[in-house]
Amino acid sequence: MPNKLKTAWQAGKATVNGWAAIPSGFAAEMYSRAGWDSVTVDMQHGIQDYLSCVSCFQGMQPSGVVPMVRVPWNEPGIIGKVLDAGAYGIICPMINTEAEAKAFVQYGKYPPRGTRSNGPIRAAVYGEAGAYQTTANDEILMIPMIETKKAIDNIGAILDVPGIDAIYIGPSDLSFSLGKTPKLDVEDDEIFKIYEMLLKETGKRNIAAGIHCGVPAYAKRMIKMGFKLVTIANDVGIMLNAAKAAVTETKS
């Protein structure tokens, strides 16, 4: 089945991504119905494990959102397993060099373009029968996180690696790496210049740029700036903020 994010990006459209930290298929089922274009299961900083990831994918399936995963690290075992579970995109943290980017792509692609092992136990049963192995290399999105000074210094070489579909900025770690306070929704001239440089470099190569945002207003601002994938907080934060607002309003 065609990857709807890739189709949208090729048409020049921006997409809005949800972020699932809660290890619950029921929570993912409800959350995925909010209108997101994609929902990413966070296996790095969330409390998701492999089985909860599979459960979340099962919950998301009826809504038609694009299922993605942020893996914990650039490692072939977990990348292969979440792809076999049905991920249509992999966001990978701390890709800092050309060599790391090449390895990442290799782990996510079938031969001859990569070294991914064949065995798509869940992914293969969706879409046309028997077609998964012939389409996966083209439809699965490989998205390295750009979140350190080292990655910024090596950005040209990283972006030139064949098979990179997009990048994803982690503002907190990027700020940390530059000696600043880690936070989302930064207001910092130095970091905004980095964003502009990244958008220029990705644009030249027809590669999408994504970023994690804290609030909708900032996400809209990033779309206007040129980002094609914006994430808004995560399911925990949105739930907590809505609950706090409801309680505060009632008690007032």
Automatic annotation (TrEMBL):
Annotated Gene3D superfamilies: Phosphoenolpyruvate-binding domains
Enzyme superclass (EC): lyase
Residue ranges of domain HpcH/HpaI aldolase/citrate lyase in the record: 28-241
GO CC, one annotated term: cytoplasm
Gene Ontology molecular function, alphabetical: 2-dehydro-3-deoxyglucarate aldolase activity; metal ion binding
This enzyme's EC code(s): 4.1.2.20
This protein's record includes keyword Lyase: yes
Domain of life where this protein originates: Bacteria
Record keyword Lyase present: yes
Keywords for this protein: Lyase, Metal-binding
Transmembrane segments annotated in the record for this chain: none
Entry similarity comment: Belongs to the HpcH/HpaI aldolase family.
Protein name, per record: 5-keto-4-deoxy-D-glucarate aldolase
Native organism: Variibacter gotjawalensis
Taxonomy of the source species: Bacteria, Pseudomonadati, Pseudomonadota, Alphaproteobacteria, Hyphomicrobiales
